[in-house]
């Protein structure tokens, strides 16, 4: 990565809403450490190879950039952006060292595969009801708005013990939290203030009258003589889980269905053999090229990546979706193989910051797919694939609508 080479601008263009940028393959082959320009105008190093990204994400020395990191690149342009894009450290969950490990231990025990499996029957009932709504509203329907958006909100509200009727507010707060250019900084900050007040009141209500939800259980952990989480960490945890548990999964449901219907032989394969749902979900997660900007890491010291020395003070963007297409790791990486196993994709990250909610997300995607295959076997896209429109202005990738017929 030469300081004189022209920087590509993120997000990279694509030939279609579900297509991967053509540059990824060439970058992996010739320029594994590239220079990119973010919407803010800041420069960053851009990684596209699987092994390089996995090694960096697995290194406990490095975490997401915050406003305490001098010179760290910001994603949002001046006058825009939410807390995450601007690296606001005041809302960051403990990011490094023992404090981060302790936080993961506290929260992770309530998001294990076993605990998520216990939530599965409730998820099935919710999806059945949402599909009823989709059918009742008539054709064509928007699968994202009717199924993809409500399900994760209901699930995360149930997990946190928050009223599901507040889901529209959660959606707005979530968008503002992950905003790059959709809202001004003032709008995003006002939204964050509303969100923080709401979550603070919810935590206070759980202290006064605990239930059997994640926030109540985290409060009980502290009350029973354990280390517990501070009020600040409880607040960041509740807000972070609600945003992460809603936005990414809601978008992924729409993308999953679109990818499987874009080539109808994929859908027919699942109809013929529903036992493939589990491997199909992981392959969809690997194959998704509309994931967002990528995961950022701030290098507090010099580090060698891909045979190149990156100096301390560099912000690195890890293109997880590009790594998921690395031919050195995945056979026929440019093809969707619904039977692919093992499938060590990095959609949920890697190392000490790997997504805690991945069992929850996988289960939601599996349940949606199982119910749709059973209830709406004739499901198809209501518009040509090329007419689907990408979400713009957020850190996470998605489709604006997913019009379907059945």
TrEMBL record:
<dbReference type="InterPro" id="IPR001128">
    <property type="entry name" value="Cyt_P450"/>
</dbReference>
<keyword id="KW-0349">Heme</keyword>
<dbReference type="Pfam" id="PF00067">
    <property type="entry name" value="p450"/>
</dbReference>
<keyword id="KW-0408">Iron</keyword>
<comment type="similarity">
    <text>Belongs to the cytochrome P450 family.</text>
</comment>
<keyword id="KW-0479">Metal-binding</keyword>
<feature type="compositionally biased region" description="Basic and acidic residues">
    <location>
        <begin position="62"/>
        <end position="72"/>
    </location>
</feature>
<keyword id="KW-0503">Monooxygenase</keyword>
<keyword id="KW-0560">Oxidoreductase</keyword>
<dbReference type="InterPro" id="IPR002397">
    <property type="entry name" value="Cyt_P450_B"/>
</dbReference>
<dbReference type="InterPro" id="IPR036396">
    <property type="entry name" value="Cyt_P450_sf"/>
</dbReference>
<dbReference type="InterPro" id="IPR017972">
    <property type="entry name" value="Cyt_P450_CS"/>
</dbReference>
<protein>
    <submittedName>
        <fullName>Cytochrome P450</fullName>
    </submittedName>
</protein>
<feature type="region of interest" description="Disordered">
    <location>
        <begin position="62"/>
        <end position="88"/>
    </location>
</feature>
